Amino acid sequence: MEQKKFYITTTLPYVNAAPHIGFALELAQADVIARHQASRNKEIFFNTGTDEHGIKIYRKAEEEGKKPQEFVDEYAEKFRALVEAMNVSYTNFIRTTDAEHKKAAAEFWKRCAANVNEKGESDIYKATYRTKYCVGCELEKSDSELENGRCPTHLTLAIEEREEENYFFRFSRYEKPLVELYNAYPDFVVPDFRLTEIQSFVKAGLRDFSISRLKEKMPWGVPVPGDSQHVMYVWFDALINYISTLGWPASAEAPAGKPAPFYEWWGTREQPNAFQIAGKDNLRQQSAMWQAMLMSAGLPNSRKIFIHGFITSGGEKMSKTLGNVIDPMEVIRRYGTDPVRYYLLREIPTGEDGDWSEAKFKERYNADLANGLGNFVARVLALAAKEKKLERAHDVPKEFFARIQEVRKEVAGKIDSFRLHEALAALWELITFGDEYTNKKEPWKIKDEKIRGEVVFTLLSLMSEVGEMLVPFLPATAEKILASVEWKSGTDTVKINRGAVLFPRLE
Ligand SMILES: [Zn+2]
Fold first, then answer.
1. What pTM did the predictor assign?
2. Which of 134, 156, 209, 468 is surrounded by the fewest CB atoms within 10 Å?
3. Structural domains in the chain (count)
4. What separation in Å is there between the alpha carbon of 151 and the centre of ligand 1?
């Protein structure tokens, strides 16, 4: 049975710095998937928000002379502003400092602690924790992950050696169940090569990981239930947001005779329904750690994890030192939301790494948006506006109709298989096809009103189809295109509303 409800979540960015263009990419990709599902008449729950605990934030707040809560309040707003500026169709913006989230995290912890193995050992236990830790990643590092004793992602930060008594999560117990999960759902992680990657990670053997910190050293976290000395390790609490956003645990209780809202969205063991999107640096956390945590708490797993790549800037890793950091808010202010969405979705191959450069941006913009889509729409509307009367009675030629259906199917298939850049490529081929058809038919030379009307009506239908297929990708542009063709109420006559140029050329 096909689910009527669709749940999708981004990861929650960590709010120790301004929003990154990589998060804008994740938002854009998630939004395409969500809007596409909405067009299938599904009810959507789209979750996003901010991850706000942990030592990095605690220290950054200290540096800026602020209370941690004050600091995260300020930063969370920057992320919310980006979500709005990207025109993302989200349902809930969750913050891990929300009171309800903290309650859910405590309940989740208790359920894991209550889960014991055949030897009677709990999934959560205390042990001495000695590790090499990268403060930049907020992650423990094994020697093989370090390069010359440094984290390759954070070369300027010294690796810290730590030893303290912590709570551990019995990750090792979930090796076999995780392998079984990946086997049961061969598309559990998309693209394929990321599934292979996580399978080998799990098969190589899982080590229990620390899930608490001593409060006296690091107080900025969710209190561990029943132990005032400890707070939860930031990853443990943050991952739980994917269900606390749905009102878990309260929403998992069904009112008499009704299905529980939580399971309707999140799915059940038999029919998992939660779609997640994450960057490649989050593969392990989302597709292994979080899944094991869900199993431990007795909850259904996610259905699918889409993994995207990183964005370089002008071919190089973004860094403050190089001065090549792309600020998503700034490029949106300069070029507008839809051009930025278009670039991210078309130029960055879904699931892989891609590059941002001013030159490539302008090239894409001028070629695809100003000349391609914008010009096609302007041309069709100019032709249509000249017709005294355009009626539904005009037939769209059969082969034309077939071509549109074919592209529709292709675009939907590409979205479902997380090949969004290919979906856009297919859609743009249809625009080229429309341009070629116009050039071949030369409707401006046709004297016969009826024949000319048919050609123009065909082009208008094609333009509207393009507008509809654009909805998940460029929602505001699609709306303008669709609003430019209006059926006069009660008649079969079309009214044309020509608006401003969609995409003025960039110099
Ligand atoms: Zn690091």
1. 0.93
2. 156
3. 2
4. 5
Q: Distance from the CA of 154 to the center of ligand 1, in angstroms?
A: 5
Element (H, E) at 189: strand 189-190
Ligand 1 mean position to 159 CA, how many Å?
Answer: 8
CATH code at position 443: 1.10.730.10
User: Across 327-428, where does the E strand assignment appear?
Assistant: 354-356
CA of residue 92 to ligand 1 center, whole Å: 30
Domain extent for 468: 358-496
Backbone dihedral angles phi then psi of residue 277, each to the nearest 5 degrees: -125, 140
* 454/443 Cα distance (integer angstroms): 9
pLDDT tens for the chain, residues 1 to 507: 566 999 999 999 999 999 999 999 999 999 999 999 999 999 999 999 999 999 889 989 999 999 999 999 999 999 999 999 999 999 999 999 999 999 999 999 999 999 999 999 999 999 998 878 898 887 778 788 899 899 998 999 999 998 889 999 999 999 999 999 999 999 999 999 999 999 999 999 999 999 999 998 889 999 999 999 999 999 999 999 999 999 999 999 988 888 899 999 999 999 999 999 999 999 999 999 999 999 999 999 999 999 999 999 999 999 888 889 999 999 999 999 999 999 999 999 999 999 999 999 999 999 999 999 999 999 999 999 999 878 776 677 888 889 999 999 999 999 999 999 999 999 999 999 999 999 999 999 999 998 999 999 999 999 999 999 999 999 999 999 999 998 777 777 888 999 899 999 999
Q: Residue 246 sits in a domain of what CATH number?
A: 3.40.50.620
CA torsion 288→291→297→303, rounded to 10°?
Answer: -170
Sign of the CA dihedral 203, 207, 208, 211? negative
Distance 345 CA to ligand 1 centre (A): 28
